[in-house]
Specification:
Elements lengths: L1 E3 L23 H11 L23 H15 L15 H9 L3 E6 L2 E7 L5 E4 L1 H4 L4 E5 L5 E8 L8 E5 L22 E6 L8 E7 L10 E3 L11 E3 L5 E10 L2 E6 L12 E2 L3 E16 L2 E14 L3 E14 L5 E20 L3 E23 L7 E24 L2 E8 L9 E16 L1
Antiparallel strand pairs: 1-9, 2-3, 2-5, 3-4, 4-7, 5-6, 6-7, 6-14, 8-9, 8-11, 10-13, 11-12, 12-13, 15-16, 15-22, 16-17, 17-18, 18-19, 19-20, 20-21, 21-22
């Protein structure tokens, strides 16, 4: 596990180390020669690791040279060779990390954070779609702690967990995009993942492993290395620090799935377009309801559901059951008030210090007032009788209302003023405190 602490980089989540898998080459010179002659891309300079005391240095033999020439000829003929594990020199993990880490960024939303990286441009960041969720704007934090706003661009396919961010203004120190790896992610290929699982002290962290399966689950690359939620959206790198994919999700203990970078959409692709928002549903779990009306307090519980469009426009329907028991007074021995209420509202949300919402709607309420009164029937003075009478008063009202809410996921508090048009003095102040869970259905 390599952990480098950059200055002033905030983090919030814990990380978990994984076992390193390192491939030791027989001949570094032969591997470098094969890479330079293969035409796979521009060579990347690496410092040769120091030799341990007592290590015997063996010169290349004629047979070694012939093997290198044969491999080069096969590649020149267009034949695809299996991944050469000898390309990964001892200490490749640190070298790959050093090559790529300055191009890795932290992506922050009101709900959390993940990782991302510059790719093909110093103004474009690639990350996982579930990191940005349905937000249109996010914050991007560079390695030196600088922050920039970025607009989310989406490819239109929810199942493809990839998103592109476009910086509103570039960072002062231009970041070098991570080059795409020419290698195929075949079984046994050593890989490395950089991300931000996070701690209170800050810092980037790296996990490494190898490609663990020749089959693809929904097109994703399987890696036998473990990551945590803050790593999502970070790059999956080869041992030269070139990107193979984007970290997506943890399939099982010790198994990480990554989306191939070759699946990234390009401008002009069929499903590529600017991200406009999301369609989501939300459930308002059993909430506590309080209402103040006619100088009386009503308590209750409620349930509800929302439909969210473009992350800002909310259509909500919720129902409440409220009650009030009055203290007996005089001949009245029991007085209860029961209310069933259905509310519908349209709300606009604004993300700032959580999420604020303001809306208009209406409330349909059905009320039952029940009163038990006791008295003495003295019709026959010789045999007075205790008489109890019951009075039920039913009423139905429709009242317009204005609402305001504040949410810090998953908790929400909302207020509504419900106006009684016929009897303004009987207007109601309603407060709800509860839990709200949201699920994205599709992206637009």
């Amino acid at each position: 596990m390599i952990h480098v602490d950059p200055p002033q980089t905030p983090t919030r989540r814990g990380s978990r180390r994984i076992r390193a898998v390192v491939w030791a080459p027989r001949s570094i010179h032969g591997a470098v020669a094969a890479l330079l002659t293969s035409g796979l891309g521009a060579p990347i300079a690496h410092a040769r690791p120091p030799l341990a005391a007592g290590t015997e240095v063996v010169e290349n033999t004629a047979e070694d040279a012939e093997a290198v020439d044969a491999d080069s000829a096969a590649r020149a003929d267009g034949a695809e060779a299996a991944p050469d594990l000898a390309d990964c020199a001892p200490g490749w993990e640190r070298q790959a990390f050093t090559n790529a880490v300055r191009s890795v960024v932290r992506v922050e939303t009101p709900n959390g954070w993940g990782a991302g990286f510059f790719f093909e441009s110093s103004n474009l960041v690639v990350t996982a779609l579930h990191v940005v969720e349905h937000f249109r704007w996010v914050d991007v934090v560079s390695r030196d702690g600088a922050v920039r706003r970025a607009r989310v661009i989406h490819n239109g396919v929810q199942d493809l967990d990839l998103a592109i961010l476009e910086l509103e203004t570039p960072f002062e120190s231009a970041s070098t995009p991570i080059p795409q790896s020419p290698l195929s992610p075949e079984v046994g290929l050593p890989v490395l993942m950089i991300g931000h699982p996070g701690t209170e002290t800050g810092g980037w962290s790296v996990s490494w492993g190898r490609v663990g399966s020749e089959t693809r689950e929904n097109g994703a690359i399987e890696v036998d290395g473990t990551v945590n939620p803050g790593n999502s959206g970070g790059p999956l790198l080869d041992c030269q620090g070139r990107v193979l994919g984007v970290v997506s999700y943890l399939k099982d203990t010790g198994i990480t799935m990554a989306i191939p970078i070759t699946d990234l959409p390009r401008p002009g692709d069929r499903f590529f377009h600017a991200y406009r928002g999301a369609v989501a549903t939300a459930a308002r779990l059993p909430n506590i309801v309080y209402a103040r009306e006619d100088g009386q307090n009503l308590w209750g519980i409620g349930l509800g559901g929302d439909l969210v469009l473009k992350n800002r426009f909310v259509t909500a329907v919720q129902g409440h059951y409220q009650w009030r028991n009055a203290e007996p007074a005089g001949p009245t021995i029991d007085r209860t008030h029961r209310r069933w209420q259905l509310e519908a509202l349209e709300e606009v949300r604004v993300s700032a210090f959580g999420t604020f919402g303001f809306g208009l709607g209406g409330a349909l309420s059905f009320d039952i007032h029940r009163t038990l009164t006791a008295g003495i029937d003295v019709t026959d003075p010789a045999a007075p009788v205790l008489a109890v009478s019951e009075d039920r008063d039913r009423s139905t009202r429709v009242r317009p209302m204005a609402t305001a809410s504040w949410e810090l996921k998953p908790f929400q508090i909302s207020y509504a003023f419900q106006l009684d048009v016929l009897r303004p003095e009987s207007s109601s102040h309603r407060v709800i405190l509860g839990v709200r869970t949201e699920k994205v259905l599709s992206y637009e």
